């Protein structure tokens, strides 16, 4: 018995082993849109009830916490799969020092300022002006992330080589042991203008989120169509190799996020399950062996993501999600276990 306030679930979950109930008190599964708070009361009164979120998962889904947790991997500069990030409220002196060091070395100093608790590119700005970045502290709490100055681009015949980002849906089955799956379909978003490191206020050149901007063209390419196009443009980089590195980054992220007990890590609550969307880009980097590589860059982790496109093109999406998370059955489901 499933209690949910999410219309996409109500419309698309058709698996015969799940039935909906409007009575929250008789539900076996609580699949809520909003954040759940009282885990202690639930664990004492109804320990058998399963819900679609983990205590302390904000360590992943809030941008400043994501950066802080990720630094547990990869030394003082953090892991290679996360852009260098500073909290402008608590790490301003460290950021200014880092900015000035890069400036003295003649390194690229484009940065992107983001509110730590918003999505859809709202109140997000790109600049290479230190004073401008400092002024951003006066509005909402923000993080500043190194802007990816050398992204892997995708050639669109209509506009040229553009930025793109990739969204994967990951399923967290448990913390101890850590069981993490990824949905086998990924989603793509593209900029509408050819990329270059100028015109920093040109939204359609520097951003990829077009589905919420009025009057803006939305370019859609299905992943099965994208892979051969990508491999034709980059024949030395088979997608299986690129995706293996992406999954490796996901695994490391959840390993460090669950390595410490709550509240420093995601809480091991046995009745929790969760679905997240991870947005990432690829950038050109150099391996320790001096080889040119496509390095995944995790941009954000989203709680209760919009799954409209997933349901539209993959009718079994929520059946696969629920079977994996709540029945621990993956046969016939479009998921791959990565941890």
Word description of this protein:
- The protein has 339 residues and is of the alpha+beta class.
- The chain has helices spanning 7-12, 39-45, 58-61, 63-70, 92-105, 130-135, 203-206, 223-233, 239-257, 308-313, 317-327; strands at 2-4, 29-31, 50-51, 85-87, 111-115, 125-127, 142-146, 154-156, 160-162, 164-174, 179-183, 187-190, 274-286, 292-303, 335-337.
- The radius of gyration is 21 Å and the shape is globular.
- 33% of the residues are buried.
Q: CATH class of the largest domain, anyone? A: Alpha Beta
Average pLDDT, to the nearest integer?
A: 93
Give the termini separation.
28 Å
Using only C-alpha atoms, the radius of gyration works out to 21 Å
Structural class: alpha+beta
Give the topology string: H per helix, E per strand: EHEHEHHEHEEHEEEEEEHHHEEHHE
Largest sheet: 6 strands, antiparallel
* Shape designation: globular
Parts with pLDDT < 50 across at least 5 consecutive residues: none
Proportion of strand residues: 15-25%
Percentage of residues assigned to helices: 25-40%
Query: Can you count the helices?
Result: 11
Please outline what is shown here.
Helices cover 28% and strands 23% of the residues.
Helix and strand layout, with pairings?
Layout: E1 2-4, H1 7-12, E2 29-31, H2 39-45, E3 50-51, H3 58-61, H4 63-70, E4 85-87, H5 92-105, E5 111-115, E6 125-127, H6 130-135, E7 142-146, E8 154-156, E9 160-162, E10 164-174, E11 179-183, E12 187-190, H7 203-206, H8 223-233, H9 239-257, E13 274-286, E14 292-303, H10 308-313, H11 317-327, E15 335-337
Parallel strand pairs: 1-2, 2-3
Antiparallel strand pairs: 4-7, 5-6, 5-7, 8-9, 10-11, 10-12, 10-13, 11-15, 13-14
């Amino acid at each position: 018995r499933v209690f949910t306030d999410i219309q996409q679930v109500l419309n698309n979950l058709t698996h015969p082993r799940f039935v909906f109930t409007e009575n929250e008190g008789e539900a076996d599964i609580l699949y809520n849109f909003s954040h759940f708070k009282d885990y202690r009361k639930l664990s004492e009164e109804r320990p058998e009830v399963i819900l679609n979120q983990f205590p302390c998962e904000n360590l992943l889904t809030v941008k400043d916490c994501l950066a802080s947790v990720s630094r547990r991997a990869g030394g003082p500069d953090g892991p290679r799969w996360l852009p260098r990030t500073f909290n402008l409220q608590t790490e301003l002196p460290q950021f200014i020092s880092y900015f000035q060091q890069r400036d003295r070395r003649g390194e690229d100093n484009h940065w992107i300022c983001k509110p730590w608790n918003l999505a859809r590119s709202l109140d997000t700005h790109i600049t290479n002006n230190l004073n401008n970045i400092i002024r951003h502290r006066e509005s909402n709490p923000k993080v500043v992330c190194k802007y990816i100055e050398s992204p892997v681009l995708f050639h669109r015949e209509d506009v040229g080589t553009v930025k793109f980002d990739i969204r994967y849906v990951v399923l967290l089955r448990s913390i101890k042991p850590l069981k993490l799956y990824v949905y086998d379909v990924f989603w793509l978003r593209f900029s509408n203008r050819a990329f270059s490191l100028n015109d920093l206020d040109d939204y359609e050149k520097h951003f990829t989120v077009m589905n919420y901007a009025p009057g803006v063209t939305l370019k859609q390419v299905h992943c099965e169509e994208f892979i051969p196009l990508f491999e034709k443009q980059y024949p030395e980089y088979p997608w299986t190799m690129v995706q293996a590195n992406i999954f490796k980054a996901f695994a490391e992220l959840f390993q460090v996020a669950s390595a410490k007990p709550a509240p420093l890590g995601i809480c091991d609550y046995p009745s929790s399950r969760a679905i997240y969307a991870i947005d990432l880009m690829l950038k050109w980097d150099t391996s320790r062996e001096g080889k040119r590589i496509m390095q995944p860059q995790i941009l954000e982790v989203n709680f209760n993501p919009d799954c409209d496109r997933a349901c539209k093109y993959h009718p079994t999406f929520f059946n696969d999600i629920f079977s994996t998370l709540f029945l621990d059955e993956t046969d016939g489901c479009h998921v791959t276990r990565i941890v």
